[in-house]
Amino acid sequence: MSLSATTARPSPAAPPSPDVSRRRRRGRLLNRLDVKYSPYLYIAPFFLIFGIFGLYPMLRTAWMSLHDWDMIGEHTFIGFDNYTRLFSDEYFWNALVNTFGIFALSTIPQLLLALFLANLLNRSLLRAKTFFRMAIFMPNVVSVAAVAIVFGMLFQREFGLFNWLLSFVGVDPVDWDGHRWSSWTAISSMVNWRWTGYNTLILLAGMQAIPKDLYEAAEIDGASPWRQFWQITLPMLKPTFIFVVILSTIGGMQLFTEPLLFGNGNIIGGNQREFQTLAMYMYEMGIVNLNTAGYGAAIAWAIFMIIIVVSLFNFLLVRRSAK
Amino acid sequence: MISASQRLWRTSPLTYLALVLAALLSIYPFYYMLVIGSRSLDNINDVPPPLTPGGAFGDNFGRVLDNDAANFLTGMMNSIIVSSVVTVSVVLTGSLAGFAFAKLKFRGSNALLLAIIVTMMIPTQMGLIPLWGMMQDLGWYDTLYAVTVPFLVTAFGVFMMRQYASQAISDELIEAGRVDGASTFRIYWSIVLPALRPAAGVLGLLTFMETWNSFLWPYAILTPENPTLQVSLSFLSYAYYTDYSQVFAATAIGTIPLVIVFLVFGRQIIGGIMEGAVKS
User: Fold this and answer.
1) pTM for the model
2) Using CA atoms, how far apart are residues B35 and B252, in angstroms rounded to an integer?
3) Which fold has domain B14-279?
4) B257-279 confidence digits (pLDDT tens)
5) What residues form the membrane-spanning segments (chain B) (predicted)?
6) Which terminus has fewer CB within 10 Å in chain B: N or C?
7) What is the domain extent for residue A27?
């Protein structure tokens, strides 16, 4: 387009032929349309696809949750009955307790460990920095399915590595998937292994953004490294820490693959639902049992609400405690 | 003479000990995949458990290929196709929209960008059940369309490209393009896209890994006849949970491509994640 415009430019002596000037006018019009509407064209793919496959299903989840909805049959409007049913559904409460239990066992040790490792990696004289960063981040590269398969074997009752190691301290073989606490521990260890490195890097990035002269001033005042960590690093790290906590909350409340594969694909999570999470219960109600899809949709909204409440709670907790 | 800041950041042997331990714990399960994946079946139940690789990897993987319950090769091919298409699309649509938000003036741009940022906070499982129904209506159940089309765009991609474009591309450069009579798309293709390459590369790597590893949705909408790699692995592990060496050989083969990608581009991936964290 730019080429034809320059070659077609007539010499100033000769008046432009009507043909050329018409072409130029059309060029200007096209140019105006281009500048005005191109931006909308460029953002259109996102809004189109997100609208159809993201926003619409989400709103439809809300609509479905107000119905007794059979995916391949009748839909009857029942108002908020699905939501009131949640309160008296013992399987829902069971899944809620499991989700929070696994969430606590995976988030708290994980963030403490990540904070510790980030603090170690933050030393400017450290050698082999890139090696350590890459090694610690490696687990995040593996798919959740692969992690669950490998850890499923490590936690195997008869010949798994963990029971073998425990035998040295005189512990009888643990039936990891047979009890609540043991299954929570096994599932949390998968989450911890896969995500500690990721959170370490995020916290490290936050630490590196803290101005170094703050530490130098503290050093001159004779503050110990431990005190500097408490008085400078932690308070300055607050925004990053909130970010990490909220990310972990969103992930933790939607936990699905680890417990599913740990129980060999059993959607109820153990014989007695010992480790069925909220996301698994939603899947059981909405997709395994197609005739209770409306109730499954209500569980989806409940998960969303819980994420918002827990995120807000954690946000306030972190903001206050680091004051 | 050591300066105050150097003394402050000094490293002790204990630091290295802790980091080496963390690195070993991080890497051990990869090694373990190879150990079990290369042992013959009668070794697996040994006490103590095997700690070094054996020589049966080829044999074990052969059993995976012969196994028609999980269709491993189909899964591998499907994952390559889906991850590649999604990656190319996310980078192109993300850079186009990111360019528009960063460098073009149009009415409503701020509100629309805010809308995109808000969508990043929405949990992905929210629309799962109706989306499953939609796929039935579209006739996409158990097809690759179902696991590709909804993921062709991401809010994260748009946002990341916008952040990078607004600092990496000067307005003068775009003005110069306009003066030369280039169309907006020409400016995008010849000026913006080349300038966005570093960030687009990181976005591509992250998108590829995420798509390769995604589980819940492919598991809900595909069957063992036409799985992605992760779905195939899960069915293999359900059906052959006693044949660990076969399952582990398959898991190792399914993990190796990403490990290679990570070993080659790890520095960029880590840089991208850490930069993203500081900005948000």
Assistant:
1) 0.89
2) 10
3) MetI-like fold (1.10.3720)
4) 899 999 999 988 998 888 876 65
5) 12-31, 80-102, 111-132, 144-161, 187-209, 244-265
6) N
7) 2-64
